């Protein structure tokens, strides 16, 4: 297989940007992810690609409550804030000098206050074959925070993470 053609073809998949949180009660993992796809209507299931060596994945494995914040067009700063480990101080995420407020869903998952939408998730399964695990999660609740949300994409930020 030609590696350059593989990259080109796989990068034709449109990638949105999301912040996934996993709160195990003793610690919180939060990170930007872009490999997300709906895979079932009933029950509503998502497949998420999560780096296996991330704090977020460790908290997922520890039984953490899962929240997925859907970032909107123009929110690249939020995506970049969660490219590394983002600690919580005084009830907010802190990325360098930026404080990022969050709330809890009715089920207790953490979601970003400024996200265009969110989903509360329940872990169903993981597949740990590659460098990223496939996390299968059921959507248990959702919220929409802007009237006409427009997804933030890798293309908007002139980034690639695929192929």
Short characterization:
This protein is mostly beta strands and 163 residues long. The protein contains three helices and eleven strands, in the order αββββαβαββββββ. It has helices spanning 3-10, 55-61, 76-81; strands at residues 18-23, 28-33, 36-40, 45-51, 65-70, 88-89, 92-95, 98-104, 110-112, 117-127, 132-144.
> Mind telling me the C-alpha Rg?
15 Å
Low-confidence blocks of residues: none
Structural class: mainly beta
- What is the domain tally? 1
Mean pLDDT: 94
Shape: globular
Strands of the biggest beta sheet: in what spatial order?
Answer: 2-1-5-10-11-4-3
What is the terminal-to-terminal distance? 12 Å
Fourth-tier CATH superfamily name: Electron Transport, Fmn-binding Protein, Chain A
Main beta-sheet annotation: 7 strands, antiparallel
Helix content: 10-25%
Could you spell the SSE succession in H and E letters?
HEEEEHEHEEEEEE
- The CATH class is identified as Mainly Beta
Your description of this structure?
The chain is mostly beta strands and 163 residues long. It has one domain: Roll (Pnp Oxidase, Chain A), CATH 2.30.110. Helices cover 13% and strands 43% of the residues. The protein has helices spanning 3-10, 55-61, 76-81, and strands spanning 18-23, 28-33, 36-40, 45-51, 65-70, 88-89, 92-95, 98-104, 110-112, 117-127, 132-144. The longest helix has 8 residues, at 3-10. The chain is globular, with a radius of gyration of 15 Å. The protein starts with a helix and ends in a 19-residue tail after the last strand.
